[in-house]
Amino acid sequence: MEREHRIDIRVRYQETDGQGRVHHANYFTYFEMGRVEMLRAAGYDYGVLEDEGILLVVHKIECQYFLGAKYDDILTLVTKLKRITHARCEHEYEVLRGEELVAKGASTLACVDRSGQVRRMPEWMVLDD
Amino acid sequence: MEREHRIDIRVRYQETDGQGRVHHANYFTYFEMGRVEMLRAAGYDYGVLEDEGILLVVHKIECQYFLGAKYDDILTLVTKLKRITHARCEHEYEVLRGEELVAKGASTLACVDRSGQVRRMPEWMVLDD
Amino acid sequence: MEREHRIDIRVRYQETDGQGRVHHANYFTYFEMGRVEMLRAAGYDYGVLEDEGILLVVHKIECQYFLGAKYDDILTLVTKLKRITHARCEHEYEVLRGEELVAKGASTLACVDRSGQVRRMPEWMVLDD
Amino acid sequence: MEREHRIDIRVRYQETDGQGRVHHANYFTYFEMGRVEMLRAAGYDYGVLEDEGILLVVHKIECQYFLGAKYDDILTLVTKLKRITHARCEHEYEVLRGEELVAKGASTLACVDRSGQVRRMPEWMVLDD
To answer: For chain A, which terminal residue's Cβ has fewer other Cβ atoms within 10 angstroms, N or C?
Structure first.
């Protein structure tokens, strides 16, 4: 799996709020898109993983904001895979508008089964730092 | 089941968009809240219905807008149950801010099972016009 | 301006709900994306229109659902411009998954200024049926 | 201003995702509701602040998740005001379902004017640790 993946995201009108900027909660949706597309680029389909009972759930997530993104901006999301242990999967994120850093974030995901019980990350996903 | 139910909804910041008004798509979320609370007032819990394999899905929905609602407005949603046949369930909605009509809508719901197959509405739900 | 425009939309995880399908309210966000991209294809930028005091607001919108779309589906949205008068702008929509019709909709937009007062649609936008 | 404020939030159907749990990004919307209601309990209206050119923007926010909340759950959000300096405003959050800890979070807000320029927090808002 590549360690870094880039996608472009065009800001939707609904993603802005009364301040005319992207509402801060929407960056977490962008991060999720980044993880999914990174997985797809590596040949995996997150929907298929779920069908196989491998549900990734967010354990911890954070974001720091530097600039306000506006409607119709094209943002570049850089998703970085830091490591995957049997227990956790760690990503970092950068949101850029051209050369400008709009936001950066980090997340830790855990693996659960359909009933919500924590399970080990599948062996093939484990990836050292 | 009563034929009309009222709830108050306070507009969340995230529900506004760059025009400083509630984004039009959010009214459909309000309508859904109205249906759920009307059901609850009649002693039914929609989550329990789903557990029993009775999934209500929107077949057709519409909304007409007269005024823009703003952040922090308290809106009154009036949900009206028009009728429930074996095939369909029809509601109408009015969104008010004090005496002013902000929006009105209508929906038709169908009943499906977990696999998405259409099924008859449960007998106890049927309600003539 | 072309009368029909197509875009592909990949369903985001957050757009699904507890039924595992795209929540019905999200189709209205898709329709908005379709209108914006149709405008862009014609050389207009909706953000610039707003900067010039031309705000398009939804007056009436509706959607009918035929199939449930799932996470990661690639949907094709066909946006059709029916006509633009001095008072109104009418669109129709079809959401397809391959050859299957998932949903169809229609909307009527009005034009307002920054203060929310209705104004005439700009002359250059008027387009007969 | 009180240092701790509680509100109850009923989970909306649209807030759940395909895993049947509240999508993690929605907790940030809950936190925002908590901040607004804490401010209101102290006699301030965030909308009025914005009208006066005092816009609070999220500089950094994080959340850690312990349990999945489901549709129709009644969650108790405890918002804690840690301190307000001339530059920053810090909150912590706990989301409970009965006695169970569902999630906890923290945020740092900054103050900007309408043009997005950072400005000092108004004197009356400053509150030591």
So the answer is: C
